[in-house]
Design goal:
It is elongated, with a radius of gyration of 18 Å. The chain is 69% helix and 0% strand. It has two helices and no strands. With 62 residues, it is an all-alpha fold.
């Protein structure tokens, strides 16, 4: 019974998420943004800013 409720809640959340996107293009933008944000986070971990250097923050294509 608990699995059915959990599955129903997840399904409702997924439907609401995609309804908010309105189009396939919107879904594509959401996925693309998530990928870019993840890549930037990984880059900050692998290549941390040097001492006395301000981190570069860009908001291009967002």
């Amino acid at each position: 019974m608990m699995k059915k409720i959990l599955l129903a809640v997840i399904l409702i959340l997924v439907v609401l998420h995609f309804a908010g996107c309105n189009t396939v293009q919107g879904v594509g933008r959401d996925i693309s943004w998530t990928g870019r944000a993840g890549a930037e986070a990984i880059d900050k971990i692998i290549y941390p800013p040097r001492k006395n250097q301000q981190p570069q923050i860009t908001y291009e294509n967002y």
